[in-house]
Design goal:
globular; alpha/beta; five-stranded mixed sheet; single chain; six-stranded mixed sheet
Length: 344
């Protein structure tokens, strides 16, 4: 073998070896992929049961080749650390509420919930799927080195109160527990906002540290015993009329997936969004009867009062963008849609 031919042989061998090393990774991706995912909710809750359905559905759509091992909230890392853990690749996927990181990324305030915003979850979901919301959410997460897959959109969270309130004006001057964008909007409407951990809401109401509070959905709040310490429920939950939680993946892990696996994630996510929303609608009607049996009065706010407060909330939304171009783009898109729906 001449020196030239020897070099050619060695080069070809090296390239062939590199290709051989690369091929198993691709082949294994086609044959089977295993991910770990941390949910937003504790085990045994309704939303967690639907995350089980999500991972099962992904498996079905991929003939069992894409296995996602599900962990409950805090099981892998504390909830507050999940964002950085997924970004670093400690595990591949999380279910999260974008609003938790809105202080760092203003756009997230509007891809999670809009106080006094869309009153119907179908409207909010339509903004994601029909008006570019998905692309904007993906752009926001892309800046953070993560991949946004899709939202789970459902309806209101109620306000539980120890005092009777029949209007938005009645809330002014009273102490209310709210978080995220809701704390800013409710504060602008005159509420004395008190930040408080979810686990502290029961004792806060019981001890009179707060007069009323946002906490979670009606069923979760009933299970937490709020009927014992707050004898009024205010509906609709204007501070969080509709909610979007998010499936978010490590970007490198997502990029390595076959196209069919990526599609399975997106399809399963949208299916779960609708099915969880429908379950919550049914649960809400059932659990309200349980609240009433415990002596809780359900008060419904006047729609004209809500509309007037919504028009005032627009300025609060604008302020919450902090001048960020993407957040501003999102708010402008959402308010334009609300105007077309006759909400503004």
């Amino acid at each position: 073998m001449t020196e030239l031919n020897r070099r050619r042989f060695l080069t070809a061998s090296a390239l062939g070896g590199a290709a051989t090393l690369a091929m198993p990774a691709i082949a294994n991706a086609q044959e089977g992929v295993q991910w770990r995912m941390q949910a937003l909710w504790d085990g045994g809750t309704t939303p967690f049961e639907f995350e089980k359905k999500f991972v099962e559905r992904v498996g079905e759509l991929t003939d069992g080749k894409f296995e996602i091992k599900l962990f409950s909230a805090g099981q892998l890392v504390p909830a507050a650390q999940a964002f950085d853990a997924v970004r670093s690749g400690a595990f591949q996927m999380m279910k999260t509420f974008d609003g938790y990181e809105a202080g760092k990324i203003p756009a997230f305030a509007f891809t999670s919930t809009i106080p006094f915003g869309f009153p119907d979850p179908d409207q909010y979901e339509a903004w994601f799927y029909e008006l570019g919301g998905l692309d904007m959410a993906r752009e926001a997460y892309g800046k953070a080195g993560l991949t946004y897959i899709a939202p789970t959109v459902y309806g209101e969270e109620p306000i539980h109160s120890t005092v009777r309130m029949e209007s938005i004006a009645d809330m002014a001057g009273k102490k209310g527990r709210f978080v995220g964008l809701a704390s800013a909007v409710m504060g602008d409407l005159g509420v004395a906002v008190t930040p408080m951990a979810t686990a502290e809401v029961y004792s806060g109401l019981e001890k009179g540290l707060i007069d009323f509070a946002d906490r979670g959905d009606l069923t979760a709040n009933y299970e937490a015993g709020l009927a014992e310490v707050a004898k009024y429920i205010i509906l609709p939950g204007v501070h969080q009329p509709t909610t979007a939680t998010s499936y978010v993946a490590n970007s490198a892990a997502h990029a390595a997936l076959p196209a069919s696996f990526k599609a399975a994630l997106a399809v399963a996510a949208r299916e779960i969004s609708g099915s969880l929303r429908q379950r919550i609608i049914v649960q809400d009607t059932q659990v309200l009867d349980k609240y009433r049996e415990k002596g809780v009065e359900v008060i419904r706010l006047d729609q004209g009062d809500i509309a007037e407060a919504r028009s005032r909330a627009v300025q609060s939304w604008s302020n919450a963008t902090k001048g960020d171009p993407l957040a501003t783009k999102i708010v402008e898109s959402q308010t334009a849609f609300m105007k077309s729906l006759g909400l503004l």
